[in-house]
Amino acid sequence: MTHADGTCPSPREIAELYFASWAAGDPEPLRPYLAPDVTFDGALGSTRGADEFLDGLGGMFAATTSNDVRLRLAGGTDVVTWSELRIADKAPMQVANWTHVEGGMITAVRVTFDPRPMFGE
User: Which domain holds residue 39?
Assistant: First the structure.
């Protein structure tokens, strides 16, 4: 996907779409921006490939009560987004999401957080 002027969206714009899709509860708008061999690794699991990635996000999106972005830093091909994630009535979790973009496509996402609030700890 490209802008009207023929340029690719920036890594920051793609990360913004990632979180806008989360807020909407629909991962499909991300599909055109996923490399076929995109990888995801996080505290609760890993995926390989665009279909697995979207399936995993769909499950996470469905479980999410809110995911409020607190800070986004972008440099070159990398974007780190810090957010406060709430699942059901659990305490909020502080999440760091690193998104790597090459040629307008997400090639890797790494997420780290302390999952104890999900388990009532």
Answer: 35-119
CA dist 54 and 59 (Å) reads 9
- What is the spatial distance between Cα 104 and Cα 1, in angstroms, rounded to a whole number? 8
Q: What is the pLDDT of residue 3?
A: 66
Crossing angle (nearest 10°) for helices 50-63 and 11-24: 50
Q: Name the DSSP letter for residue 115.
A: -
Q: What is the pLDDT of residues 16-28, one digit of tens each?
A: 999 999 999 999 9
Does 94 fall in a domain? yes
The CATH number assigned to the domain holding 85 equals 3.10.450.50
- Shortest CA distance to 118 belongs to which of 40, 68, 43? 43
Place of tokens 């890797």: 108
